[in-house]
Specification:
six-stranded antiparallel sheet; SH3 type barrels; mainly beta; two-stranded antiparallel sheet; elongated
Length: 123
C-alpha cells in the first residue's frame, strides 16, 4: 500500500510550489506508481507542433496529416507539490485518515487536518 496516494482523481488541489503556486485545479488523473497527478489548468506546457504527415505503408496514397498548432498539455506534477483543498473550510490542507463505522463496517475516510475543521474530504 506504499504507493497509495491521498490525492485522488476529482480532488480539488492547490499547487504549493513553482510558477503555478497558489493556483487550484481538479485532478484529472492520479498516477500512484509515479506519485504524480495531472491537474487541469496547472503546470500546463505549451507544445508547438508542426503539421506532419503520417506515413502509412499499408496503404497507397492518401497521406494523412496531423495538424500543427499549439497544444495546451497539462504535465504531471509530483503529488508532493500539491495539497488537497478541503471542501468544508476551503483551505489547502494536509489529509488525515480516520476510521468510522457505516452499517457495521469500519471504513477509512479522508479528513481535513486543519484545526477546527477535521471534516471528511469525501462527500
Ligand atoms: Zn477543512
Amino acid at each position: 500500500m506504499a504507493t497509495k496516494m491521498k490525492v485522488r482523481k476529482g480532488d480539488l488541489v492547490q499547487m504549493i510550489t513553482g510558477k503555478d503556486r497558489g493556483k487550484r485545479g481538479r485532478v484529472l488523473e492520479a498516477r500512484p506508481s509515479e506519485r504524480r497527478v495531472i491537474v487541469e489548468n496547472l503546470n500546463v506546457a505549451k507544445r508547438h507542433t508542426r503539421p506532419r504527415p503520417i506515413r502509412d505503408s499499408s496503404r497507397m496514397g492518401g497521406a494523412q496529416v496531423v495538424p500543427g498548432g499549439i497544444l495546451d498539455k497539462a504535465a504531471a506534477v509530483p503529488v508532493a507539490n500539491v495539497m488537497v483543498v478541503c471542501p468544508v473550510c476551503d483551505n489547502a490542507t494536509r489529509i488525515g485518515i480516520s476510521e468510522k463505522e457505516i452499517k457495521g463496517e469500519i471504513v477509512r475516510v479522508r479528513v481535513c487536518k486543519r484545526e477546527g475543521c477535521g471534516q471528511e474530504i469525501d462527500r
